[in-house]
Amino acid sequence: MDSYSRSGLMASHGVGVQTCSDGSCYIGQFKFGVKHGLGCYQFRMELMMMIGASILIMGSLMNVAEAEAEEVIHVAGKVLCQDCTQGWNEWVTGAKPIKGCKVSITCMDDRSRVIYYGSDLTDEAGDFDMTINKHIYGKELNPKGCFLRLISSPDPVCNIATDFAGGRTGVKLGRPAVVYRDVIKHILGPFYYTTPMCDEPDTNTDEFDGESNGQGTNY
Asked: How far is Cα 145 from Cα 44, in angstroms, rounded to an integer?
């Protein structure tokens, strides 16, 4: 009988399912030691270390996600088609969303230099949602130096940009519509495209003044 048997302790050697005194089991290898003592203690310590490492990793990922949320500005809105050939009610309330419209945002610095340009396409509901980093080239972005405008419409008929809400010439970012915790969101528009038939003619008052005075016309 070896020293472990003489001392009244049960020695274990080999690979198998080991049962701890509290009823828990694990698979491990024993070269020597006490079956219900040293092996279970080592297993519990390893398990606690794994749980602690998992908690630290999850905490780090959450901190990174929060930091990323704090570093961006959301700019959202909607693009619709307004058809003047319809009845009054349809023209006022029946505007339809356009999918695939391109909307751009341009940001300038204090010296009127372009430091950011981005674009997005509208979805089936006519919605767009862009994100801008708060810091560009190591400097904090001033949202008041950013403006958004319509670029193009894929609709074969409703493709004339209107200046309703500043969509054609561009509209600057004002006060954010949503400020909740770390979320800053500007909501603009809605912006509208229309058909060529509904587009307003580009008149020039000087030209008409000349015609009224009998100048600048061959008729």
From this structure: 58
